[in-house]
Amino acid sequence: MEGTSLYLPIVILLMQCSPSVPVTVSTNRHKVEVREFSDAVLSCMFRTEKDQNPRIEWKKKGKDVSFVYYNGHFRGPFEGRATIDGATVTLHRVTQEDAGEYRCEISAPLDSVSLGETNVTLKVLVPPHTPSCEIPSSAVTGSVVQLRCRDQQSIPPATYSWFKDNQPISPPRHANATYLINSHTGVLEFKAVAKEDTGRYSCLASNGVGSPKMCEGKHMTIEDVNITAVVAAVVVVCLVVLVCGCGGFLLHRNGFFTREFASSVVREPLLSINRYWFYSLRNEKRLTSTLFSPRPPRLIHQQDTEEGPMSTTFLHPKSRRTSNTRSHSCSEKLAFL
């Protein structure tokens, strides 16, 4: 009995000297996943050393940290659609804009460690929407054909499966299969389509959130190559090339494309032999050349201005086509017979 009374003061002294527990903050779910337009509970639990009325704050991280709950009130877009119980916050009818990382902060000025915090990440899940499908209406045998299916809004990203005539198309089981299916990108590719690939195709998008969605089917027809049409097209192209070539040759022969004749200064004829007139020409590059024709060109109009070069208009001797030339250095008028 005397021994017990001897140890009692020592126990009391040790209890008084033991360190106190500072403020601690925790959560029972660091990652929260909820469907869009449902409620999200962001839990936050704390324990203080002395302060019985700590300050509770919720913040959302982004490009800038913004307040969710501060000084006893919800802020910004959370005002009127969030509630708090202790330090646990419930967001009502969450959307994609609510997704992100949140931080619960507890400030206890009377404690030895006055600040504690914990983080909660919110992910908002979006069920599949009706995917957009790109299905060609027709193709020729032997060609490479791709059918595409995509849902841009589902979270997590959807996976895709294809159907032909309302029957699922199984993924290829061997390397030399005639088609490929990428369930992540939604692409169905035929390496070389055949007539038996004709049918009505549709695509199903699913991501485990809500009901899968299917796009409206579309019929694809595979046709044989029309040899007659190909040959006819080749013949038409050849005829067009032939006609254009002949026309260009005739125009060139008649002087239509003669650049020297259109851009040169025509001097008076040097001499005439067997009804062919020879002219001395000087083009814009100051190169001397010779032009001959059965008849000399007939001058129609000539004007010498002070501001610029002389303008000369003449009639081509063969095509009876008028042409305009400008001389950058002319001091004398042209003389024609």
TrEMBL record:
Keywords: Membrane, Signal, Transmembrane, Transmembrane helix. The chain crosses the membrane at residues 227-251. Residues 1-22 form the signal peptide. One of its GO terms (biological process) is leukocyte cell-cell adhesion. Residues 298-327 are annotated as: Disordered. The keyword Transmembrane helix applies. Pfam families: Ig_3. PANTHER family: JUNCTIONAL ADHESION MOLECULE 2A, JUNCTIONAL ADHESION MOLECULE B. This is Junctional adhesion molecule 2a. It comes from Amphiprion percula (Orange clownfish).
